[in-house]
């Protein structure tokens, strides 16, 4: 089975009372990441049983090496982490996986979770 890029799973544990402030600072980072040509998709999930726990899923058309040696070193991450890490109640958890690709990687039209024509929309 051929790999079709790299997927990053990042779980953050934010102090619940800091979530609004976190998302104000996080939104500009999301916009910069999504604008990267290698970024195929970007999704944020909340844990309904643990306020303050969010998981970010990023799909990249790139290797793990590129992700770690090029993408993660961009200045906008450092700027964001300096402002948001004090809001963490425990360290971030990172997993990097490689998708199996077709037939096990399926996206149905219309399931954009707020993304329309490559533009991030916020409700």
From TrEMBL:
<dbReference type="InterPro" id="IPR007138">
    <property type="entry name" value="ABM_dom"/>
</dbReference>
<dbReference type="InterPro" id="IPR011008">
    <property type="entry name" value="Dimeric_a/b-barrel"/>
</dbReference>
<feature type="domain" description="ABM">
    <location>
        <begin position="6"/>
        <end position="97"/>
    </location>
</feature>
<dbReference type="Pfam" id="PF03992">
    <property type="entry name" value="ABM"/>
</dbReference>
<protein>
    <recommendedName>
        <fullName>ABM domain-containing protein</fullName>
    </recommendedName>
</protein>
